[in-house]
Design brief:
The protein is built from eight helices and seven strands, in the order E-H-E-H-E-H-E-H-E-H-E-H-H-H-E. The chain is an alpha/beta fold. It is globular. The termini are far apart.
Length: 251
């Protein structure tokens, strides 16, 4: 039986844990060859070993995707070792939870650089590898904080709202070439980033009360969505954002 991503080369940033790891495992299971990227080589090697143990293919690349020179070196290394990237998942992200008036400029810039500027750098470097082939997939991990917000999320919401705008503009630029660009906006998922909420019984209960589905999302559900968006079946979906939040934004 043909796998949906057979032979595709997929690069995922922030692939060492959480949603990035889940998407990598799901795509590898559907035949993609994975380039796993983050700053933590040891964690990446664990993910690669898991994928290889399940019969998949994965290689590890370390880079700070907020640094222009790192991204340029990454693009050259991946193309030399694996070939041209056809699927790019911009998943690296950080969140600092504090009131706007408490932010230093350095903290503000760190959130914007990681969540937004890195995507610009990665797309600028890797989209040319897709062009001319008639196929390409870019997924930007936006957030329900692109659509709604909460106290203490000024930097995060700003970065993710801007990322949604970038996603739409790039989709229009690349649509004539058969390259789709979409966002995935996760709601509350049980990942390392949300450990402060998961481990606080009171905050956890507050969050669950706001989720109509009554539970945290499972990372495997993000993996399945990413596989679909990268498959041939999703070629007419571009310039949009898929909200996967258990009903949070519908309220």
């Amino acid at each position: 039986m043909n796998k949906r991503l057979d032979g595709r080369i997929a690069l995922i940033t922030g692939a060492s844990k959480g949603l990035g790891k889940a998407m990598a495992i799901a795509m590898a299971a559907e035949g993609a060859r994975l380039a796993l990227v983050s700053r933590n080589r040891e964690q990446l090697q664990e993910v690669a070993a898991q994928i290889q143990g399940q019969g998949g293919q994965a290689r590890v690349f370390t880079a700070d995707v907020t640094r222009e020179e790192d991204v340029a070196a990454l693009a050259a290394a991946v193309e030399q070792e694996m070939g041209k990237v056809q699927i790019l998942v911009n998943n690296a992200g950080i969140n600092l939870r504090k009131n706007l008036t408490e932010f230093t400029l350095e903290e503000w810039r760190s959130v914007l650089d990681t969540n937004l500027t890195s995507v610009f750098l990665m797309c600028r470097a890797f989209v040319p590898q897709m062009q001319g082939s008639g196929y390409g997939r870019v997924i930007n991990m936006t957030s329900i904080m692109s659509w709604v917000s909460l106290p203490g999320r000024a930097a995060y919401s700003s970065s993710k709202s801007a990322l949604l705008g970038l996603t739409r503009a790039l989709a229009l630029e690349l649509a004539p070439e058969g390259i789709t660009v979409n966002g995935i906006s996760p709601g509350p998922f049980a990942t390392e980033m949300n450990l402060p909420l998961l481990q606080n019984p009171e905050l956890n209960a507050q969050f669950l009360s706001k989720i109509p589905a009554g539970r945290w999302g499972k990372v495997e559900e993000i993996g399945a969505l990413a596989v679909y968006l990268c498959s041939g079946d999703a070629g007419f979906i571009t310039g949009t954002d898929i909200v996967i939040d258990g009903g949070w934004c519908a309220q």
